[in-house]
């Protein structure tokens, strides 16, 4: 099976701090959806920045689509939505912000316009296109940031806390949209574990800069001992499912 991403012995540390990542190895297949879970400070965002080439590993290697990641190089096939949307929204209007990426890939004016209208319709933000990003609510800004990355049509989509600030309506729309994106490889870092369960078949559990578990999402997140040992709780839907199967007295 084709590998979209391969990390081998990747380590990275910030100045005068502990290792953010320590000898991390894993691979992601084409069209696979992987949730990156773990407590605050586990190294999730650092991993994403390494994959995107924003920073360089202190040790180890990263390959995307079979090519080594070169720090600072442009990777149009990789799109990342940052946790902090202010780092991503840079243009005077929402329309211009979404168009910025496609324009820089050499598309014609008509193609850019069609791309903007299409992705804005998919994410439900058409009414925001002529607004100024900094005047939007934090949830609206997040949707704009997601839309801007989707306009690039990346083969590898990276989402850092994508449901932060989203209300239930937009959260549900995002879940449906991601689940309809056949053929895309998607990495999601989120504390919204129910969202991860609905969008990812596999999870990579990071803590203390290391991979603590890697496997089927529902199986890993059902492990109460593992989850609590690393500062997380079993998602409510899995607890409820367990009670339905076992019953109130612990019997099948």
- The structure class reads alpha/beta
Rg, rounded, reads 19 Å
The number of strands is 10
Strand order of the biggest β-sheet = 6-7-8-3-9-10
CATH topology of the largest domain: Rossmann fold
Order of helices and strands: EEEHEEEHHHEHEHEEHHH
> Helical residue percent?
25-40%
Which CATH class of the largest domain? Alpha Beta
- Unreliable stretches: none
- The overall pLDDT, averaged over residues, is 91
Largest sheet: 6 strands, mixed
Strand content: 15-25%
CATH superfamily of the largest domain: P-loop containing nucleotide triphosphate hydrolases
How many H/I helical runs? 9
Number of domains: 2
Which oligomeric form is depicted? single chain
What's the CATH architecture of the largest domain?
A: 3-Layer(aba) Sandwich
Shape: globular
- Terminal Cα separation, in Å? 39 Å
């Amino acid at each position: 099976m084709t590998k979209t991403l391969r990390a081998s012995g990747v380590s990275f540390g910030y100045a005068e701090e502990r290792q953010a990542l320590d000898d991390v190895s894993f691979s992601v297949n084409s069209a696979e959806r992987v949730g990156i879970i773990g407590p605050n400070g586990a190294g999730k965002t650092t991993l994403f920045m390494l994959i995107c080439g924003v920073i360089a590993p202190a040790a180890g290697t990263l390959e995307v689509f079979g090519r080594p990641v070169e720090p600072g190089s442009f990777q149009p096939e990789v799109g990342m939505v940052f946790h902090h949307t202010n780092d991503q929204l840079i243009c005077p209007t929402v329309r211009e912000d979404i168009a910025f990426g496609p324009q820089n890939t050499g598309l014609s004016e008509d193609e850019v316009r069609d791309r903007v209208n299409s992705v804005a319709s998919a994410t439900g933000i058409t009414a925001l296109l002529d607004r100024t990003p900094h005047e939007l609510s934090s949830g609206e800004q997040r949707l704009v940031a997601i839309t801007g990355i989707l306009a690039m049509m990346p083969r590898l989509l990276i989402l850092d806390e994508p449901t932060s600030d989203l209300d239930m309506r937009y959260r549900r729309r995002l879940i449906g949209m991601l689940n309809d994106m056949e053929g895309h490889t998607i990495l999601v870092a989120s504390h919204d574990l129910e969202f991860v369960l609905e969008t990812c078949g596999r999870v990579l559990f990071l803590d203390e800069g290391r991979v603590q578990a890697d496997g089927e999402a529902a199986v890993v997140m059902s492990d109460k001992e593992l989850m609590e040992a690393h500062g997380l709780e079993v998602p409510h839907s899995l607890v409820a499912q367990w009670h339905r199967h076992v019953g109130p007295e612990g019997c099948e």
